[in-house]
Amino acid sequence: MNRFFFSPDQLNDGFIILTGEDARHLSRVLRASVGDRVELCDDGGCCRSAVIVALDRSRVICRPEEDRLPSGEASVYVTLAFGLPKGDKADLTVQKVTELGVASLIPFYSGRTVPRPAAHKEMGRQERWQRIARSAAAQSRRSRVPPVAPVCSWRELLALFAGYHRVILFYEGERKNTLKAALAGLSAGEKVLLVTGPEGGFTAAETREALDKGAAAVTLGPRVLRAETAAVTAVALTLYEAGEMGGGR
How many angstroms separate the CA atoms of 236 and 80, rounded? Predict the structure, then answer.
C-alpha cells in the first residue's frame, strides 16, 4: 500500500481528507478507486491503513481502520548537520538520508561554504527540502517526516551541540579515530548529531571549535568523499552501528 502523511486539519468527522499533491498522485498517477486501501500517518507517528470512500482530482476521502501499523523509525535519534553544497546537491542528501532513517536535518554554512543565497531563496529551498523529505519518508514507509531546520551559521550550530548525547564530526584530517569507536555503547533513545562539511571541508579553526564543544572527530577512511557522499555514508554507517541496518548492536 502507498503511504501518505496528514495533519489535524485534514480530519473531518472521523474521515481523513487528502488534498493537493497527494490527491493528484492518488487519482492521476496511481489511478486509485473507491475501496482501495492506503496507509496514513499523523503528526505523532501513528500509522493506520485506511479505505478510500470517495475521490476526485482535488481530494480523496479515506476512512481509517483501527489497527496501528508498525513504526518504521530508528531506535536512536540521529540528526544530520550538513554543510551546504553547491547547486541542488542538497536535494539528493535530504532524500537519501530520509530514506535511511535520519530523524532531523540541519543545513549550515561555514568558512568554506560557497556564497549564501538571498534570504527569500533560502526559505524556498527549505520548503523544497521539506517536500523532498516528506516524499522520501512516504516512499521508505517511515511513520514520521524528519524536519529540515532553517539554514544556520557555524556559530549557531556549535550552540546546538549541548542538546545531544554525542556529537560526531567527520573530518578528513583525522586519521585514526573511527566512527565505530565513537559510537561504542550506543543505546536506544540516544540523540546523536552527525556533522559533515561542505565542499572544501572544515577549517582547522572550525575543527578546534567543534572539539572544544565536545565533538569527537572521526575518519571515513583514506579516500576523500564528495560532501553529499560523506553525508549519506555517515548516516548509513551510524544506523548500521545502531543495529538499524542489519549490523552493530
Answer: 11
